């Protein structure tokens, strides 16, 4: 038949004409007769001229041979049908696993094991809270010790949130592929190592680099901690105990404020390491601030991996052993050691991506296997990041991204604005107390008392001695110093502008050339001058910043308690929406704040209400996403939160001393927007963790 088909269709016999199609070439057949004019081989037939390629008949269709396009379409349909079938089977298996896992957690109960894990993960969350304050508290002293410019100080503040943003994005995806416990140990380990090294940094570059890596490490704690802990909780306990866990972030702020308040102003707590490095008290504070991370890291070595994660990756035996450990630990602590773990089989679907890694791990040299595995892992993590932003999860991600961004923009923006506004009010009050002296003439006088907040204009000082004093916010303008002595002087914000200085000696002072603006000097000597950067006096380290942060962190406690007690009763959605709208009202009342005490009171109120909103947001984020994408989604949203924090703090701080209307209106608008969007979220109280 094939030979017949070939000869009948394509054979060109001794003449110049084409053969006929079909079995016969008679008058009733469909054929091209030889009496047509001869054509070139590549020329088109006159009969088919003007027809589209789509309209031409396929030569084999009369013999029942399908068109190639039809074959491809059928193959595509078959593949889609198989893929749909696999997806339905996988979805059914995962749903069955979710229901069975919830039943197992109900059987294990809530007890000693969850409380031990609660403390260990709480300390990790506490370390994240501390990280947000470390640089801000250490900076007033570190800027003198490391000779920092204003631009360098700004970069240090910025790198904290930038590094945490990168860490959240990176570790969240890795935790869904390699394990919650493993990633959390690595993240905390990186944080501890580089936080410790940063305390010994002798230059700005090293300090910035170490804090950058420290922040990348600690950035992974929030998405991993909530995902990890939620997978050990039964449905009716999940919202309440995740809310209690949020309190540790507040404890981090209190711990950082309290230790900074108690350590940094105590300059005697430092020591010298050669001539190059002075280990001042702010360096001691940096080490003490890392203790929660170190403690959590030690505790994690005694904790198991999430069994739900193991089941998602087809590690049935390991998951079963951990669930049995949870069961036995809880029931022994309750005085019922005889209660037996009766589960014998757990549904554990096989994941295709795990197979890919297993196949690659058995080939090549160890270096090649590591490279292939790392590249495969990176591709899978990148794929997970795309999946949480597309498909069925895109609307959930869009809603949650809006809420996270609006809340973080307002919360972190106002958290910076509150202390900066208090400082501005202090500065305005300070300015009203400035003493101005005009054309004073002082001869043969010994100044052995502090000079503070003074302006001296067109003064004349002859044979005067300034010895062993502090000069703070003192300004000399158009003045004459003749045959004077400055000895053992400590100065802050002190300048000499357009002055004439004759036959004057500066001995062991910190008055260097930058403090003399357009001055004329004759026969003036500087002996044993203090060069480089140094710590200012104790008063220069304003204790108010510690107090404000301490009160703001402490004010979070009522919001945490209320949200934990009512999150299961009134629902996550109402907690988030209501708290954000009430926070918007609190921010609007800032128009009425004209004193430091009023700003501090409103800050405490705002932080208390915002804490309830944050708790609800984090609980819903855990419950909206399936186990395979939970940490990834949490990491993406937490990274967005840090981006909003950078924008909010930068924008709000730029308006301090200019206007308070714009920061207040921006905060109000963002909170109202986020609150209204939150009310559209589904209620996840009775949702089994997928």
TrEMBL record:
Protein name: Synaptic vesicle glycoprotein 2Bb
Region described as Disordered: spans on this chain: 1-51
Gly residues composition bias: residue spans: 12-29
Membrane topology label: Multi-pass membrane protein
Transmembrane segments: 115-139, 154-171, 183-202, 208-229, 241-264, 284-303, 392-414, 544-566, 573-592, 598-620, 632-655, 661-679
Keywords recorded for this protein, A-Z: Cytoplasmic vesicle, Glycoprotein, Membrane, Neurotransmitter transport, Phosphoprotein, Synapse, Transmembrane, Transmembrane helix, Transport
Protein localization: Cytoplasmic vesicle, Secretory vesicle, Synaptic vesicle membrane
Organism encoding this protein: Poecilia latipinna (sailfin molly)
Protein family (similarity comment): Belongs to the major facilitator superfamily.
A GO MF term: transmembrane transporter activity
InterPro entries referenced in this protein's UniProt entry, alphabetically: LD_SV2 (IPR055415), MFS (IPR011701), MFS_dom (IPR020846), MFS_sugar_transport-like (IPR005828), MFS_trans_sf (IPR036259), Sugar_transporter_CS (IPR005829), SV2 (IPR022308)
GO biological process: chemical synaptic transmission; neurotransmitter transport
